[in-house]
Design brief:
The chain is an alpha/beta fold. The protein has helices spanning 2-36, 43-56, 68-80, 92-101, 107-137, 139-150, 153-159, 165-181, 186-201, 210-222, 227-252, 270-278, 283-297, 316-324, 327-342, 347-365, 379-387, 390-394, 420-435, 468-475, 516-520, 524-531, and strands at residues 301-304, 307-310, 398-399, 415-416, 480-483, 497-498, 511-515, 534-539, 543-547. Helix 8 packs antiparallel against helix 16 (347-365) and helix 15 (327-342) packs across helix 16.
Length: 548
């Protein structure tokens, strides 16, 4: 009887236990990363705006991003209960700096609390990945998908920050999963899918490109019911999504006040201007779109494989993903996509997994800012679900030892392809754990690992200002010449840095500390200083220490 009870317990609980262990390790590394990193470039703006939402109850800053992602951050900010200066009158960049460093708050404590709600949401999206893959490919595929998600360096890196990329991507994945389920219980899942899609729209405006795709997915989900029902369902999902956008603004300010400063909002004409005017969104959302279009029209510099260039390259994101994705994960993504297209029973699911991922990637590739794979952080989510189809495909593809026919007796069992996806998952796990806790500058083994990412990529791929604290720990007592790219205040952390570009080159002696993103774009004086200096160490694989 005891053995029977043990077997029953094992059958019932091993799967939830494994899910718990995978998400627990993910939570552990994300919290550790959040504790150790100083504010990245975007975070102070979002944290400052979140605090302003809580105290002013008005949309006054950061109109280029809708409120929901910052309301999620605000849940942690409210628990931290920082002092907010009601008389602050600067811009959004100064807002976050003032809140963190000039108002008597502890930036370490405040940033951790701001990051925790995003970490919790990232873990919940892991469950979406698991259940989506289980619906499509069964329990074995669900574990492959969840393992890839839980060990994804990009998801861990950006899920540990008080930023908007992972929440927006996760809401899109959730909506796709709910639409996949809608053919069975449309009255339940269609409204939930609209809610999730609306949450994405209320977090980042770049998700607007998903609206026609997801309306089409609603049609596919309900087509077998009736054409009229399918079209009504698609219209309902679209209307419900935009309703969520309105609700997110009403939560901040029930009066929907919006008074932009003169010159803050650009004029947008042509087709873009028409789209902005026709969308059923609040006025501040429209103006935020205009600001985003201004960003798209600005001059940006990119850095790829050691080459600094102006403008954008259409192949930047695929190339950057090739560097920053674990090799085993790349193999499983490709095999999963092939499996979804090759196996008849999986082809319908491919519409809900591969189509939105492909459209979102194509849209991201047309952007003007080659600043990081975070613009495609939805790929590790959607393609984890696709990779979950590999065990289903591999299980039906036995491999026979050379010299043995399938019917002849043999001393060794047939080799099976079923073990391959699990071996690749282990390869991904080892690669991910080896980079701990430096997930932002991760690159795979083919490109030399995180210590060499700065030779090929820049900005949020490598150095987003996250390592001021580590710099202070190692060199805080030493005077240095500092070129720092980030939103933190070096002096707060005890870093005694002077600007080497403000004095004659001959006076720059001793330690020269340069953010890798600044080094990637170095010209003139800084380029000459780096040429005549000797690299002696790196900090967090994002800051290089030179000696002159």
């Amino acid at each position: 009887m005891a053995n029977t009870a043990l077997r029953t317990f094992t059958r019932r609980w091993w799967a939830p236990l494994l899910v718990f262990l995978l998400l627990a390790q993910m939570a552990a590394v994300m919290v550790t990363t959040a504790v150790e990193q100083t504010p990245t470039i975007d975070e102070p703006v979002y944290v400052g705006t979140a605090a302003d939402y809580l105290h002013a109850h008005e949309v006054r800053f950061n109109p280029e991003h809708p409120p929901l992602g910052k309301l999620i951050v605000a849940a942690g900010v409210a628990l931290a209960d920082p002092h907010v200066d009601p008389d602050f009158a600067g811009d959004q960049g100064a807002l976050g700096r003032h809140l963190l460093y000039e108002s008597g708050n502890d930036p370490w404590d405040l940033m951790l609390w701001a990051r925790l709600p995003v970490i919790a949401l990232t873990l919940l999206f892991g469950l979406v990945v698991f259940f989506f893959a289980r619906d499509v490919a069964g329990r074995a595929g669900a574990f492959v998908a969840l393992a890839l998600y839980a060990f994804s360096p990009d998801v861990i890196a950006h899920g540990s920050l008080a930023t908007l990329d992972v929440p927006a991507a996760g809401f899109l994945l959730t909506s796709a999963w709910l639409l996949w389920r809608a053919d069975r219980r449309p009255r339940l899942y269609l409204p939930l899918a609209a809610l999730a899609l609306g949450a994405a729209l209320a977090t980042k405006m770049s998700t607007l490109t998903a609206v026609p795709v997801f309306a089409g997915l609603a049609v596919v989900a309900l087509w077998r019911t009736s054409r009229r029902t399918a079209l009504v369902g698609a219209a309902g999902v679209t209307a419900g999504a935009f309703a969520v956008v309105w609700v997110s603004y009403l939560v901040v300010d029930p009066r929907l006040r919006w008074s932009p400063a003169p010159g803050e909002i650009p004029v947008v004409r042509g087709m873009r201007g028409l789209v902005v005017r026709l969308l059923p969104v609040p006025p501040s959302y429209r103006d935020g779109m205009r600001v985003q279009f201004r960003f798209e029209n600005q001059h940006w510099e990119g850095f790829l494989f050691g080459h600094l260039y102006s403008g954008a390259r259409w192949y930047y994101l695929p190339a950057a993903l090739l560097v920053k994705t674990p090799l085993g994960m790349l193999a499983l993504w490709a095999a999963g996509a092939a499996a979804m297209l090759a196996v008849p029973r999986l082809r319908r699911a491919a519409v809900f997994v591969l189509l939105p991922a492909g459209v979102l990637l194509a849209s991201a590739m047309t952007g003007s800012r080659d600043l990081g794979t975070r613009y495609a952080v939805f790929l590790p989510m959607f393609l984890a679900v696709a990779a979950g189809c590999v065990p289903l495909w591999a299980a039906g593809r036995p491999r026979v030892l050379r010299g043995c026919s399938r019917s002849s007796p043999r001393p060794w069992p047939a080799l099976s392809a079923a073990w391959v996806p699990w071996a690749l998952v282990m390869f991904v796990a080892v690669s991910s754990l080896r980079t701990f806790p430096y997930y932002l500058p991760y690159s795979n083994e083919a490109f030399g690992g995180p210590a060499r990412t700065h030779l090929r990529l820049h900005d949020s791929n490598v150095d987003w200002g996250q390592d001021l604290g580590r710099l202070a720990e190692r060199y805080g007592d030493e005077p240095m010449w500092l070129v720092y790219k980030g939103a933190g205040v070096p002096s707060y952390y005890g870093v005694r840095g002077r600007d080497p570009l403000a004095v004659p080159e001959a006076r720059v002696r001793g330690l020269l500390v340069v953010s890798d993103s600044a080094a990637a774009k170095a010209r003139g004086r800084l380029a000459e200083l780096l040429r005549t200096s000797r690299a002696v160490a790196d900090v967090g694989h994002s800051i290089t220490v030179y000696r002159r």
